Structures are given as structure tokens and as C-alpha cells.
Amino acid sequence: MKILVPVDGSSYSRAAIEFIASRATLIGASPDVQLLNVQLEVPVRAARLIGKEAVAAYYDDESKKALKGRCPCSSAPAAGRLELRRRHPAEAIARRAEEAGVDLIAMGSHGHGALASLLFGSVTLGVLGRTRRPLLLLRGHGKAPGDSLKVGIAVDGSAYGVAAAEYVLEHRPLFGARPKFTVIHAVPEFGGAAMPDMAGIALPAYSAEEIKAMQQQASTRRSLRCAGCSTRPAWR
Questions:
Q1: Residue among 168, 8, 25 at smallest CA distance from 17
Q2: pLDDT for 13-56, tens place per residue?
Q3: What is the reported pLDDT for 134?
Q4: Model confidence over 52-95: pLDDT tens digits?
């Protein structure tokens, strides 16, 4: 499994490294972990004044700082290759992911202000808008979880939900030796059915019993719960 981990020296990027290092089952499979540090380019005028050697030394020092305080272990992430690039961070991360053909981009992230639950930061949003590679966002600075994880997979009957489930099953070592998977399908409430004149749409009025029966039928048809699945479930 090829994993790209952008690092910038922050506690958030260290959390991403520590999470990957905590994947004992995955590490045993010898994954290809690549660390990427992106530096904003020094303005041309400033670069001319201080010279090429000084600029190169500056980039080298900054990239080394990005690795300070990372997980002190002998696992794959500690031995992962570090690459330095100079350009817009989101663009560099997305481009490197495509060039390397990675299976996963793992990066730490955090929100800002009142919209913290909606926005993850400009770099994260930039990566999301530039790549189609799977992206794992790690929030917070807590202790890395154990090897076997509890994983929720949200599905809605679309190809995207199926793709998410297939990715999880194809990369089970990422989630530990004995992961527990819960496939979640949320059934919308039948507000329009209970209020037929809402929004000017004429809908048949269903009784509470009929609405409950329809919800149960939809939930049964599209929900699946499995623990430690070793075979691909039959998606319907």
C-alpha cells in the first residue's frame, strides 16, 4: 500500500505520522510510506539578493524542522522517504499523489473559527479539489488508536458509497487485524408524506404506521452490519 503523508512540523502532521505508525498490521505488510514537505518559494527578488546556495540551505533547514518531534519509532513511517517540493502546498501534494500513484493521502487537519465543523483549512480543501485519490483527514492530537479500529462506512446506494466500501475491504490492513465494520445508511424522514401540502407539492397522505413500515423496509434493504468481515458483502 502506498501512502503519502504531507508534513509541515505542526502537531497536526505529527498526528498523521503517528496514526500511520500505529497501524501494526499494515506496517507488517511493509507499506510504501512517502513523506512530503512543501515549502513556499522564496520571492525571486529575495532569492537573487541572498544567492542560490543560501536559498537551498534555507529550504533544507525548513524541511528538517518539519520532521522534528515525529514519532520516534523504527517502523515504516520513521524510515519513510522525505521529499521536498517548492510550490503551492495543495498543488504539490495533489501532483505528487498522482505521480506516485498512491493508495492514500493521510494528513492532519483542523478547522477555523465558527465554521470549524465545515472547513478544514485552505490546504485541505485545495487537495480535495485537485485529486481523486482517497484522502484520510486526522483531527485532534490525542493518543493514536489501537491496531484494530471500529469503522463506519456511509452508503446511500450510489456508486460512491459502494466505492468507499470496496476501498475499505481492499485495504483491510490499514484498519487492523480484527476491525469491526458498520455500514450505515440514513433514511430521510418522510416529512413531505406527513405534510402533503408542504412546498406546494400534492403528495398522498400516509399514516404513521405506513411511514414507519416504509422506513423499516428501506433500512433493511440498504443497511448492513458486519464484524470482522473477511469476504466482500453482496451489495444491493
A1: 8
A2: 888 888 999 999 998 888 899 988 887 665 566 666 777 677 67
A3: 94
A4: 677 677 667 766 666 664 444 444 444 456 676 667 888 889 99
Could you tell me which of 174, 177, 152, 178 has the C-alpha nearest to residue 165? 152
Cell readout for 105 is 493521502
Which grid cell sits at 126?
A: 485545495
Q: Which of 75, 88, 4 is nearest to 41 (CA)?
A: 88
Which amino acid is it at 165? A
**What does DSSP say about strands 180-184 and 81-86: parallel, antiparallel, or unpaired?**
unpaired
What's the pTM value of the predicted model, to 2 decimals?
Answer: 0.69
Q: Rg of the chain's alpha carbons, rounded to an integer?
A: 23
Beta-bridged to residue 84, according to DSSP, are 37
Q: What is the pLDDT of residue 23?
A: 93
> pLDDT tens-digit profile of 103-130?
999 988 765 444 444 445 678 888 988 9
Rounded CA gap, 227 and 236, in Å?
A: 19
Q: What is the mean pLDDT of residues 189-217?
A: 62
CA-CA-CA-CA torsion sign (164, 170, 175, 177): positive
